[in-house]
Write a structure and sequence with these properties.
By secondary structure, this protein is mostly helical. It has helices spanning 14-41, 55-61, 66-91, 97-132, 137-148, 151-161, 171-197.
């Protein structure tokens, strides 16, 4: 009988893969820390005239067109770019490298971008509104809460693209998870839109604390 050496198939790539994972984790952590630091240092932008709407709508309506672009257009365009490019990847073979590149880099950027949005709004909106009792009923909370929940699918896509998550997955599985995360973002974003468009007074909020000029009384600003 001829002795055979033990096979090493499936293990030779493990050390490089582990090293690549460590590099990815460090890179993601470094970029995330930098983004959080910048977001914390940014001053609060002027809120504009308070018309008594949800804070979600107030945020998008103020400082036109910049708030609308930064807080709504950019993340939604990134998510829809990912969705459309994934349809092209699914239905076209061979996959265009341009389409694959757009899909990957949009997914990479989306999570980091929205991390900055999350930190900024937590500092200048969510925490002040919570500590001062400034929320305008459940619709206001749902609108802002579901908007900020967008960090879960968007940052999840960033973790996929940097291979921090799913480093050992094949392309088909990664694409399925990626598409699921895009769908989840669109769901939470649309729930935020619907709740944000509601008049808070319709769902029980009492607008009597607003002054005649539409501004909030002391202790209710954010």
């Amino acid at each position: 009988m001829v002795a055979t050496a033990p096979t090493t198939t499936g293990t030779a790539g493990s050390p490089p893969r582990a090293a690549g994972l460590r590099v990815g984790v460090v890179a993601v952590a470094a970029v995330s820390v930098a983004i959080v630091a910048v977001a914390l240092l940014l001053p609060a932008w002027p809120a504009g005239e308070d018309m008594g709407s949800t804070h979600y709508m107030g945020l998008l309506a103020a400082n036109q067109p910049w708030n609308l672009l930064l807080f709504m257009a950019v993340p939604v365009i990134l998510a829809e770019t990912i969705a459309v490019s994934e349809l092209a990847i699914l239905f076209r073979r061979p996959v265009s490298p341009i389409v694959a590149g757009v899909n990957r880099y949009a997914g990479l950027v989306a999570g980091f971008y929205f991390l900055g949005v999350l930190v900024y709004l937590m500092k200048h909106a969510v925490i002040p509104l919570t500590t001062t009792g400034g929320w305008r009923g459940w619709a206001d909370v749902v609108a802002v809460g579901f908007y900020l929940l967008g960090i879960v699918p968007l940052f999840g896509m960033t973790l996929l693209e940097t291979r921090v998550v799913g480093a050992g997955w094949d392309d088909h599985r990664r694409l399925k998870v990626h598409a699921t995360l895009v769908g989840l973002f669109l769901v939470v974003a649309h729930i935020a839109m619907i709740a944000g468009m509601l008049d808070p007074a319709v769902v029980g909020w009492d607008p009597s604390h607003l002054m005649d000029d539409g501004s909030q009384m002391e202790g209710m600003t954010h």
